[in-house]
Specification:
The chain is mainly alpha-helical. It contains twelve helices and five strands.
Length: 320
């Protein structure tokens, strides 16, 4: 299973002067001359090469991801990729369940790196080693247990990650086109104080991305985005929910108190009994109508969302 198939389409403190010590004099440091003979350099590089070779032999997924010598230093020492922690243990064979947990661990690492790259446009010697190593591990597990189980694990972790990530940035990251991403990172949209995108840019662009997907995206893209947005509302509403029966929209659980809002969009009630859980079978178009109704409630503020699931009436505003 390729990367693309995974749908992603990483001093000694100075002494403090006393009150009577007078002005601090800056020390004059003479540069220390460092020399190394050709033979010493050859020996050093040979040792590094042997070290990296032995690490690769203990884990084939580390190939090409070793540390790089830079003078007397090594750049890119990542223990879990090219160090002792990357060593495979033949005496212990993981179960199928354990392998799926490893997929979830490594895909979380990939998402962390990819989303951070999207937000900051920065990377480093650790990140450029961890990501390919993680993909190789996932692919090896897919070869062992099959693509279907791995794809499900990737989907589950991605869905969970989407709920914890900042909503607007995630939508641009996950669903934006190359042109939309380029606009997001345009110099005019960056805050010179921290190098990140200015407040408000992500929200405005995310709204355009959502409109585009719902207007001209493939049925699969529309349903995927719809479920992501509904899942986010489910997480928010269930925080305020005192408990009780539930309804399901696209397999996502909502407090039963949301049912009247769903029915107001013109959806038929498959289970009129209020003491039963309700499992709605919906089209994408019906789902978009429900999402629009939830958006309308959310625009009124957090109290409106709480009232939706706690059966409380909002006090009329002074303006009304």
């Amino acid at each position: 299973m390729s990367d693309d198939q995974l749908n992603y389409d990483p001093d000694v403190p100075a002494s403090s002067p006393t009150e009577n010590s007078g002005p601090v004099q800056e020390p004059t440091l003479e540069p220390e001359e460092f020399t190394i003979t050709d033979e010493e350099l050859k020996t050093y590089l040979s040792a590094i090469e042997e070290q990296q070779k032995s690490r690769t032999e203990c884990n084939p997924d580390s190939e090409g991801l070793g540390a790089i010598p830079a003078g007397p230093c090594l750049i890119g020492c990542v223990d879990e990729v090219n160090g002792k922690s990357a060593e495979e243990i033949p005496a212990f064979v993981p179960t199928r369940h354990e392998l799926i947990q490893l997929v979830k661990y490594w895909i979380k690492e990939v998402l962390d790196l990819d989303f951070w790259w999207f937000l900051s446009q920065t990377t480093g010697s650790t990140e450029i080693r961890v990501r390919p190593f993680a993909i190789r591990r996932i692919n090896r597990i897919a070869d062992a247990v099959g693509d279907d189980q791995v794809r499900k694990a990737v989907r589950d972790v991605t869905d969970e990650y989407a709920q914890k990530a900042s909503r607007d940035e995630w939508i641009v990251f996950q669903y934006g086109t190359a042109e939309e991403e380029a606009f997001y990172h345009d110099d005019d949209n960056l805050d010179n104080r921290n190098g990140f995108v200015k407040a408000g840019v992500a929200g405005e662009l995310a709204s355009k991305v959502v409109d585009r997907i719902f207007r001209e995206g493939t049925p699969e893209q529309q349903e995927d985005l719809l479920k992501a947005e509904l899942r986010r509302y489910s997480c928010i509403l269930r925080r305020y929910w005192p408990g009780g029966h539930f309804i399901q929209l696209f397999g996502i659980d909502f407090p039963c108190e949301v049912k009247p809002l769903v029915l107001k969009t013109g959806v038929d009630d498959p289970a009129p009994d209020p003491d039963r859980n309700t499992f709605f079978k919906l089209s994408v178009q019906q789902g978009k109508s429900i999402l629009a109704a939830l958006d309308e409630v959310a625009r009124k503020g957090e109290d409106a969302l709480k009232a939706l699931v706690q059966g409380k009436r909002l006090k009329p505003s002074k303006a009304s």
